[in-house]
Amino acid sequence: MRYEVLEVLRNNFGNFVSGEYLSAKLGITRTMIWKHIRALRDEGYVIQSSSGKGYMLESVPDILNTFEIKYGLNTKYIGSEIHCFNTIDSTNTYAKKIANEGCKDGTLVIAETQTAGKGRLGRTWKSKSKKGIWMSIVLKPEILPSRIQIITLAASVAVVHGIKKVTGISTGIKWPNDIISDGKKVCGILTEMSSEPDRVNYIVVGIGINVNHDAADFDDEIRHRAVSLKMLKSVYSDVPVENIRRSDLIKAVISELEQLYEDIKNGRTKDVLNHWRRASLTLGKEIKVFSGGCEYRGTALDITDDGKLLFRDMNGLMHELVAGDISIRGVDSYI
């Protein structure tokens, strides 16, 4: 009920709403209204109260709760069911659990902090509390398991588009799923799948975005190749940069993802691939490929219709690389 009170205040942001009006509209006592106001203040909402005028919402904190994510969200199904946590071991692990229990297509899991966040190739993902976006989305596409890579490509495009829409920052994609700006990683994506030989049961798309970190928030071992959106904005500003509202970025990303997911379901995968090509920082470059303890050099030429990287090695031989256990780097840099 407190979020119903909040919705009325949000819809009248900067204006007083009387306790009498709230009580009549929501069908609860004014005493209960006051209790909900107190609970919202405890969450960080700045609400002014005045005798004879009522309550006025003055400021909304950068917090992640179901209300803030759903408020103004224009998707049809991604985010229609949301599980929010202050702390969790891994949003991907929880998403797989509820997917096995039959949650809806498009269910979103999000946490302020992860204690055992997952990255690609068995790496851990550092999840600084209240600084970034750590979320997982359960999808149930009717595609063959061999075509799962197209979902990962769509997710990376959605992040690039969402970041641009909310912050104005241009980013690019390092195959298969790292989001890069200024030569440093701002986001990682981990896709996990449950499948049968001929069908996908579900896919979990885990997305971790460094949003409001300062340089000191990154460990020494990754500081040279990690960056946050706030840090990127600071480079071009002469004044202190305000925190980016994470709920706005989440809404932008999942809205973009739903459009791309619809393209995939309706057979318009070429549109997704072309979006990815335009955002790619890998295609046309000389790269190093690491696989099975070996290193190979060559040129990244294109991606195939099912999302594999088309790679020509130094001997002129062509290869189609599947993300799986492969890692790539630029010849002289991270990208």
Describe the structure.
By secondary structure, the protein is of the alpha+beta class. It has three domains: 2-59, Winged helix-like DNA-binding domain superfamily/Winged helix DNA-binding domain (Arc Repressor Mutant, subunit A), CATH 1.10.10; 66-279, 2-Layer Sandwich (BirA Bifunctional Protein, domain 2), CATH 3.30.930.10; 286-330, SH3 type barrels (Roll). 31% of the residues lie in helices and 29% in strands. A seven-stranded mixed sheet has the order 3-4-7-11-10-9-8, with helices on both faces. The chain has a five-stranded antiparallel sheet with strand order 15-14-13-12-16, with no helix packed on it. The protein has a two-stranded antiparallel sheet with strand order 1-2. The longest helix is centred in the last third of the chain and has 20 residues, at 246-265.
Provide the domain count: 3
* Structural shape: elongated
Largest sheet: 7 strands, mixed
Tell me, rounded to a whole number, the average pLDDT: 91
Helix segment count? Answer: 9
What is the helix/strand order?
Answer: HHHEEHEHEEEEHEEEEHHHEEEEE
Task: State the CATH architecture of the largest domain.
Answer: 2-Layer Sandwich
Q: Any low-confidence stretches, pLDDT <50, length ≥5?
A: none
Helix/strand-derived category reads: alpha+beta
Radius of gyration: 22 Å
Helix percentage range: 25-40%
Q: Might you state the CATH topology name of the largest domain? A: BirA Bifunctional Protein, domain 2
Q: What is the topology, as strand order, of the major beta sheet?
A: 3-4-7-11-10-9-8
Gap between N and C termini: 48 Å
Determine and state the CATH class of the largest domain: Alpha Beta
CATH homology group of the largest domain = Bira Bifunctional Protein, Domain 2
Extended strand count? 16
Strand % is 25-35%
